[in-house]
Design brief:
269 residues; alpha/beta; Rossmann fold; seven-stranded mixed beta sheet; 10 helices; 7 strands
């Protein structure tokens, strides 16, 4: 019998009780675009050597494997900085986003690195690419902004673009990063949370969503138990003083790590 404190059951009950609102129609799409146009104003060119970015590069690079000459699509690319790292390793990068401002930042960022990129102003739910046209399809920090049925649709849309033998990779915030969840709630109460509605996942839920999308063989784990502290006032400064802002600390695997990473390889025909 399930425990009365089962976190999965509790989250489902809360979702029903309070009718969480997510971006699922044209009105919410407009709000989502506005949110990320505004967020793109905070993007900076000097973030890519921070330990959290380096940890992302490490885990994403290891999960994907050989990158050189691989055709890579990022769906909901935001700043595009992680994909720029993949381009620097020889990947042929394509970026999709609904925010013109985000794509403009990516254009300038790639140009500053003298890296090629192709940009597409498209919706993740209505992409115009042929099926099985990319070696790797990925995104990070996107899927948690949608309700479960739309999460499943997004996973399916991305999966069908993956070539046989290619890989799908998705990252999302971990609901078991307790320090992050507390900091986020404080920011929401204060009206300082800038990322819109967010339904952070557990590994268990992420696996179930993937199974419902037709993907049953995957690698999934969480890492970076440090970055959640950064969402508190002076969090970065405190972790610096404590000596925690090293690559080793940020790339550490942990059930309480901030980032869940899911990777699945499509069977070859």
């Amino acid at each position: 019998m399930n425990s009365p404190f089962d976190i999965e059951r509790l989250r489902n009950r809360l979702a029903i009780k309070y009718k969480f609102i997510f971006y699922k129609n044209s009105q919410f799409k407009e709000k989502l675009t506005k949110t990320w146009n505004k967020e793109s104003e905070s993007y900076k060119f000097n973030n890519d050597n921070q330990p959290d970015y380096l940890a992302d590069y490490y885990h994403i690079g290891n999960s994907l494997g050989d990158i050189k000459n691989k055709k890579i699509l990022e769906v909901g690319s935001g700043s595009g900085q992680t994909s720029a790292y993949l381009a620097s390793k020889g990947g042929i990068v394509h970026l999709v986003d609904i925010s013109k401002k985000a794509l403009e930042f990516s254009r300038r960022y790639f140009a500053s690195k003298k890296l090629p990129v192709k940009l597409y102003l498209q919706d993740a739910f209505d992409m115009k690419f042929p099926d099985e046209s990319f070696d790797y399809v990925w995104n990070g920090g996107v899927i948690e902004h949608f309700e479960d049925k739309d999460k499943i649709t997004m996973i399916k849309n991305m999966w069908k673009l993956v070539k046989p033998g290619g890989k799908l990779l998705i990252t999302a915030p971990n609901a078991y990063d307790i320090q992050f969840m507390i900091a986020k709630k404080i920011l929401q109460i204060r009206g300082k949370w800038s990322f819109g509605s967010e339904d952070d996942l557990t590994i268990k839920r992420f696996k179930k969503l993937s199974l419902n999308a037709g993907i049953n063989k995957l690698l999934i784990y969480s890492y970076n138990p440090i970055v959640g502290l950064w969402f508190f006032p002076y969090g970065r400064e405190i972790t610096n003083v404590l000596g925690l802002n090293s690559l080793a600390s940020h790339k550490l695997k942990s059930p309480f790590g901030h980032v869940i990473i899911l990777c699945a390889k499509k069977p070859s025909k």
